[in-house]
Amino acid sequence: MKKILSIILAFTMVLGLCAMVGCGDNKDDNKTTGSSSNTSTVSNSEGTATLTTVTPGKLTMATNAYFQPYEYYDGDKIVGIDAEIAEAIAKKLGLELVISDMAFDSIITAVNQGSADLGLAGMTVTPDRLKEVDFSISYAKGVQSIIVKEGSKITSYDDLTADGAKYKIGVQLGTTGDIYASDEFGDRVNSFTTGNEAVNALIGGDVDCVIIDNEPAKAFVANNQGLKILETSYADEDYAACIKKGNTSLKKAIDDAIVGLIADGTIKSIVDKYIK
């Protein structure tokens, strides 16, 4: 069954506009962020607001650009759903978007250490991640799917959990597929730096299946003969942007931007461009 990304039209009666935060000088402790004292003054319908960003005038997005169609390389440029949503957010805030590509499990570290303002990478809100970072409101839903070889004895999720099952499972390190599968299947899980590596391990026979987001799964299957996606999904989840804890002005500004982009149809049009 074809699974289509659902856009969350969460019309919360209006989240207000960006919170006004005092613009401290270099001697101020900067309570809204940790290691950076850089500020960007942005305009909105009620005047101006001061946001703390890694680089004044810029919004730096951390991602892992091997997660098509959310983020991937087109030549030397990173494109995709998350890249375009981040660009739209930055435009609303009057900032220039900068995208930094890194390992998926380094994104939260980059945000916490002040080398990125936010992480967008098909990232799911989980209780453990909420202990480390704040999240924006959700802008999309995802589905974790299971990729197998054609003719595999694995025909459904139930085969993975059956008594005596010893199937090896490939995942991308740090993703929710990794988190969920490691918790459920323990040492049967093999983690790889990228989804490509996990799929190559499946093709090579090192693992019996791969658990990964449905949209990248479809791209992997389309690009590799002899693979298929099981019709039974593994997990449903919400995607959001992660932001350093305590940077409340930036979180509110991003929340407001996402609400506006959902309301005016921008996010839906971006998703529709990549997912038919």
Give the gist of this structure.
The chain has 276 residues and is α/β, with parallel strands linked by helices.
Q: How are the SSEs placed, and which strands pair?
A:
Blueprint: E1 39-44, E2 47-52, E3 58-63, E4 66-67, E5 71-74, E6 77-79, H1 81-93, E7 96-101, H2 107-112, E8 118-119, H3 127-130, E9 133-135, E10 140-149, H4 157-161, E11 169-172, H5 176-185, E12 189-192, H6 195-203, E13 209-213, H7 214-223, E14 227-229, E15 235-239, E16 242-244, H8 248-263, H9 266-274
Parallel strand pairs: 3-7, 3-8, 11-12, 11-13
Antiparallel strand pairs: 1-2, 4-5, 5-6, 8-16, 9-16, 10-13, 10-14, 10-15
Helix pairs in contact: 1-8, 1-9
Explain the overall architecture.
- With 276 residues, the chain is an alpha/beta fold.
- The chain has 9 helices and 16 strands.
- α1 (81-93) runs antiparallel to α9 (266-274).
- The radius of gyration is 20 Å and the shape is elongated.
- The chain starts with 38 loop residues before the first strand and ends with a helix.
- Residues 1-37 have low confidence and may be disordered.
